[in-house]
Design goal:
By secondary structure, the chain is α+β, with helices and mostly antiparallel strands. The protein contains two helices and five strands. The N and C termini lie far apart (about 110 Å). Bound molecules: iron/sulfur cluster (2 copies).
């Protein structure tokens, strides 16, 4: 009989011990978030998804040269003199037509080196970090809107046999 009551006491005591820890956490600050409805505020200089405001891109290629992993692919062509002058938001004249500006975010190492030399500040790191995709090719971001205007260059003719 004595053992019977001792077991009951021990069971209640064990439950109370567990509830003590639970009760303690009821009054401490929560360290979890109700993601995705609530999100962490990211540090000011976080490196996330790249974005190019292509309307302000002058096609200078400085970002391409700065990229250590060569994941920016750009093609430009000179605008004709007869075309109406256009300018970036900061007033820089746009003399080149950017017909391709692709960034392969699957290769990007988020170093941010491409954004610093951009003279018109059109290439930026956004605070966007939720951009997972299932197909790898969806990481190839295409920003260019202009179609090529110049006719494609003819392929070089083969040299005659015996010429140097
Ligand atoms: S963040 Fe770095 S790796 Fe990514 S595109 Fe820019 S320069 Fe290249
Ligand atoms: S550095 Fe800026 S303006 Fe120059 S090509 Fe890159 S995105 Fe365009």
């Amino acid at each position: 009989m004595k053992r019977y009551f001792r077991d009951i006491f021990q069971s209640i005591w064990t439950v109370l011990q567990g509830m003590k820890i639970t009760g303690f956490h009821l009054f401490t600050r929560s360290c979890t978030l109700q993601y995705p409805s609530v999100k962490w505020e990211l540090p000011e200089r976080s490196r996330m998804r790249l974005f190019n405001k292509i309307e302000d891109c002058i096609g200078c290629g400085q970002c391409v040269r700065a990229c250590p992993v060569d994941c920016i692919y750009m093609t430009t062509e000179r605008r004709a003199k007869e075309e109406a002058p256009i300018f970036a938001a900061d007033g820089t004249p746009i003399k080149l037509r950017v017909t391709q500006f692709d960034i392969d975010m699957s290769l990007c190492c988020y170093c941010n080196l491409c954004t610093y030399p951009c003279p018109t500040h059109c290439l930026v790191m956004t605070p966007e970090y939720e951009f997972a995709v299932q197909a790898k090719q969806d990481f190839l971001y295409r920003f260019a809107k202009d179609e090529p205007q110049a006719p494609p260059k003819p392929a070089p003719s083969p040299r005659p046999a015996g010429s140097r």
